[in-house]
Structure formats: C-alpha cells, structure tokens
Here is the input.
Amino acid sequence: MSMFAHTETNARSRLPGGKALGGLLQRLGLGGRGLVIAIPTLWLLLFFLIPFLVVAKISLSEAAIARPPYLPIWEWDDGLLNINLNFGNYLFLLEDPLYLSAYLESIKIAGISTLIALLIGYPMAYLIARSPENQRNILLMLVVLPFWTSFLLRVYAWIGFLKANGIINNFLLWTGIIDEPLIMLQTDFAVYVGIVYSYLPFMILPLYANLVKLDQSYIEASADLGARPVTTFLTVTLPLSASGIIAGCMLVFIPAVGEFVIPALLGGPDTLMIGRVLWDEFFSNRDWPIASAVAIVMLFVLVIPIMMLRKAQAVEEGAS
Amino acid sequence: MKTLATMCSVMALTAGAASAEGELNVYHWSDYVAEDTIEKFEAETGIKVNYDVYDSNEVLEAKMLTGSSGYDVVVPSVEFLARQAQAGVYSEIDKAALSNYGNLDPEIMKVVAVNDPDNTYGVPYMMYTTGLGYNTDMVSERIDEDKIGSWDMVFDPETAAKLADCGIAVLDSPSEIMAPALHYLGLDPNSEDKGDLEKATELMLSVRPHIRYFHSSQYINDLANGDICVAVGYSGDVLQARDRADEAGQGINLTYAIPKEGGQVGFDMMAIPDDAPNPENALKFIDFILQPEIAADISNYVYFANPNTAATEFVADEVKNDPGIYPSDEIRSKLFSIKPHTPRYDRSLTRAWTTIKTGK
Here is the structure.
C-alpha cells in the first residue's frame, strides 16, 4: 500500500500542473487507483457495452425499407410509450438449420486450428524459453516480426503459395513429385493454413511467458527421482504450463470462430462459417435485425469458453 | 447513447463545414473512370474532388442506409437505386441544371425508367452486360465449337464437366446468376415464383460440382493468369483482364461474349444522396460526365459502353466495334434487365444461393 502511494505521488509530480489536477481529482473522490480503474472501465463501456446494446436493440427490431433499414423498437405516442420487441429474429435462427450448422462449423474449424496451433506453438515456445537468454529476444522478435506487414497482405501472400500455378505447385511439378497441380486454394485446408499461420504468435507468446518462469529445479528433481524425460514432461512441465495453454488457446480460438477474411480469401464456396452468414444477412438480405441476432448469439457462444477460462484461473489462483 | 449520437453529429457537421465550398465527395466503383477524368474536372471547375471507391453494390447500400455518408455523388446499379430511392435516400435530379442531359440515349432512358420512374433519381453513367469471359485456347481444346459463347458452358452439366479441370468461376451474386439461369430455362428472369426458383436452384446444383469458386472480382486476375478458363462476369472486367493478359505476353487469349441466348444488361446510375453536403457541385460533376468527349474517354479506358449518343463519335473504333461492349442489334434484342426483389424473395434467393454454394 505504501509503495503504491509512493509511486502515485512520484507520477503526479512529473506532470506539469499535476498537483492542481491531483487535488481536483482527490476532491472528486478519484484517487490514483480510481483513475487507473476508470480508464479501462470507460474504454469497455464506450467500445464494448454501448455497441453491444445498440446491436442488441437492433436484433429486437424488424427489417424495413427505410433509413436505417429497421423499425424503431420504441415510440412516443401522446405520452404513451410503445415498445415493440421482436423476438422472432432469434426464433428464426432456430427454424433454419443453416445457422446451427454454421455455428458448429465455425467452432469446428476454430477448434481444429487451435489444436494445430498448440501442437506447433508449444515446442516453439518451449525451445525459445530454454534457449540461452541472449538469444531469446531475437527468437521472440522473429515470432512477432510478421506483424510488421499488414494482416491482409500476409493472407494474400498465401494465395500466391497455394494457387494452381503458385510457388508450391510449381516447385512440386519441377521436382516431379506430382504431375498435376494440387488444388489447395479454395479448400478447407487453405483455411486451416491461413488461421494457424495468422494466429500462431498469439499461441506462442503466452506459452513462452509461462514456460520461461518454469523453475528448472523441478525438472532436475524429477530426473533425480528417476523419471524419463517424457514422464517429466507429462507430469511436471505440462501441468505447470496449463494456464499458458489455456490463455494461448483462448487467444487463438475466440477470434478464429468469428473469422471472416481468411475463409473469404482462402476458403472454398462450401466453407460455411458464421462470419459469412452474418455478411449475407447484413448485405445480401439487408436484414440488419437478423444479422444482429446472429452476432448476439455468437457472442454468447464465445462467452462460455471465456467463463471456463475465468474459472480455471480462479481454481489455479486458489491452489497457489 | 444520446450524447454519443450528438458527438457523432457534431463530428459530421465539422467534416461537412470543411467541405462547404469548392469540394466534392465522390463514391464510385473501383477502376471506373479514365485516368484523367477527375483531374480534368478539377481543372475545369476549380472544385477539389475527394474520391473513394467501393467494389460492390451491397457495400454502398449499407453506407447509404446508415445515412450521413458525407458523399455528394454515388453510383449504384439501377435496381439498387430503385430500392434505395424507396427508402428515401436520394434527392431528385434537377434536370434543368444539366446542360448536357439531352445527350442521353432516349431508348436507354426508357429502359432505365422501368426501375427509376421518370428518371427521377438517377442519371445513367455506363452500361454493362453480364456474360462469359473465357480463355479461347483452353476452351476450344475441351468443348465443341457451337458450345463456345453459349450459356451451355456454365449451365449444361455435360459441357461444364469438360471445363471443370481448367476452372469455372461464377459471380458471387445470387440475383445476377439466378436471372440468367431462369432465362436459360426459358423462364422469366425476374420471376419471383417459388417453383421457378426451385428449378433454377436445381439447375445450379447440377453444375455445382464443376464450379471452382464464387467471387465477384477474383476472376479478373485468375483469367489473366490462366488459373481459370471460364468466368461468368461483367463485360468491362473481363475486357480489362484481356488487356492485362495481353500486356503480360504469356500467350493467354481471352474473349468476352454476351451469350448467344442473351444476357443481363445493367446500368450504373449517378445519384445524389439527400444529405449530400455539396449538392450543387454534384450536379456540376454529373453534367461534366455527360460531356461527349469525357464520356467517350471513360468508355475508351474502362471498356464499358456509355449511354451518351453524342459521345459515340469520340469512342475509339476498337471499343465501338467490339460486340462485347456495344452489342449488335440482334443480341441487343435478347438482353434483359433485372428488377429489385421484395425483401421476402431476396431472403429465399440468398437462402437458395447458400444451398447452392455449401450444399446446406
């Protein structure tokens, strides 16, 4: 507590006019801690809660040829407030099996991609964490380096690799391994490649942060007690890195479920993901209420794994 | 919520104030003017143009229906203009303020008036057809001469099967593909009958295994690179692919054909949003485009036919005499245009389209 107060005054005195501002905030009942919490709260309120409420409102409306293209859900009529809530949009999602299969397909594609990213990312994170300290930063740089190029451009680059007369096919034809170009682009395979490639750093970084803290003496102790490396890995390293695995998987899985760009550019016409269904509802059908309902349901589909993560973290904190 | 809305409108107002005099905000299709069109307009009028592009009617529509787009001139296709006008998005065109309005082809104005009664809200910009772009060599190796340039290339399962290995691409646009499918079956391309839609869906499902992908612009590059051999696409886009292939000099020869059976003719319309910050400059821009030399310059550059009778003499012979751009009278009589659908039918159409694409 005292340390906190100390840094607080330090930070204030560095600001020009900081004293006056600090005094004002104190009078408003906003100390440094309140301010620190207020900023993220305001951020979430402005960029998450308000947009969410707007979308939720539209999802309870009805489509119309108007601007904006839906009917208002409340109206003042001579001092009488009329509220029309249309839950039909949500019921409609149940009526047509298309929506359910799009959600399931999205979860399947995101799940498999997450698993592949974990299988590739774990050894990489492990190696970086175990390499000499002076090399770690370089290796981490290499993981982060692709972010310096636009995401869209990197996905486009994969088109050049995967297409019928692209780099991979031309190389395989030249070596004589294949006679006919392999059709890789516009398939689910290309979508997996795209998602795993794009989100791999989000898997590696939390895993690395976790593995680098792993106390080497546990592993030595395990070896001293006669465990083989595989046993040590399975019974010591893996359980201790569980929180890193969960964090990495969430960071890959959640954005992958709602992914639109990668399946649109690399996927085939039969790759049905929820992002595409949402696009169709919004643009082709001009049905903003249904599109909003699809988005709200997707949010709840994603909230469940987040809750699981919170619970797992709480259990871990309780244990330690 | 209220404060947020106020904040947004304040921001919009300041943005509007900055462009109150001497500016024009144009929202146009990508690759749809000559290289010097905007420059010439700025030089002639002294108006500064802010130029943005989109590549689908749907994206434009979403902006228009949200409102406060800040644009002065937009260019939707006529069937989209019809629906947006119904939503009250556009202001009426002041024809008296357009000195070159008389240059417009009265025949075309009549066709366009089916969707835009009395030509109230739109001035035709260019006309396009939706037809077949194909790689001449790859196609003639695989199918009979009499099938080339016919809808059979895409809609006949036997013919399409022979072309599947070199690649068939189809526009990802339900209305623009289902209309020719209905036409191919001898039905009304604008039919909203459930039974007709089912027949067209069956036709598409029968050729579905032979279609490599559905996309509305990818085919331009893929045709030019020889990655696909047939595309159902827009006339000007296929012709631009042909130019690219010629420039690359890889021996890829592309042809655009309006199918023998007839195809869809469409019109892109210049329109002024009702909340346009500079409506007078918008009229000046439209009048500028209606100048014969300017319209001809654009046609010569983008390979789309203009609806301007006075411009024809300035259009290059290779463009004017290309039946893919300026169709012959015989083909012209077989062209059809599409009308906006009711929201209910649009939903059935999109749903059928998803079934066609994904099998679900």
Observations:
- The radius of gyration of chain A is 26 Å.
- The interface with chain B takes residues 50, 53-54, 63, 65-69, 96-98, 101, 163-165, 186, 268-272, 277, 280, 282-287 of chain A (CB under 8 Å).
